[in-house]
Automatic annotation (TrEMBL):
This is Glycosyltransferase. Pfam families: DUF2064.
Amino acid sequence: MKDATLASVCALAVMAKAPRPGKVKTRLAPPLTLEQSAAINTCFLKDTTANIAALQPKGHSAGVISYTPIGDEALFDGLLPPEFSLIPQRGDSFGERLLASAEDLLACGFGAVCLIDSDSPTVPAAAFSQAVEALLQSGDRIVLGPSNDGGYYLIGLKQPHPRPFTNITWSTSVVYEETVAAVCAAGIELVELPMWYDVDDGATLEILRAELLDGTRPSFATLKGYAAEHSRKFLLDLETQP
């Protein structure tokens, strides 16, 4: 049943796997161990949700974790801001899970939904704010935040449109391009956010290290990234280990 009080609220839903070693961020091992990969995944989750939680006092957004697998809810205990809620993912393919998460949150009564990856801990808060602002204006539209690897770190919707999630070649460098084409083919207004990046492997981990420890903004960035203090501390501790 829809909650009418949520009509002016955008759900900021982080798509997350439970942080279990060997199940998350495995492409970071090496250079990290599987245990370290799970630990930095936890840091990413803490930073992303803290970033989102800082927007919530403005009253137009709500933090959510759309998680998998069912049964591992306890692994999120103590990791999230208290106002966050958990909803289970459903569906088989990645596209099905994205669309189902949007459907479930819109069915709750939210006026809009942003589906956010859990691999981009330094996304500027301004990008999230821009997405919320665009989606809560009148008229239908889709918001996309491109990643420098050809994917996206955020997709925002006001209606559960299936086309942006159908026949997409997931986990490739053409995801963003194909999604934009699907949105345009459906005749839906598109709002594009500033480009950012996912931390998926050793090369992108080095971009994160340079950003957080050296203060080197990524070459493609037009905004200053979020401070991501949990990830920063993890990387600092990693460098100072004997």
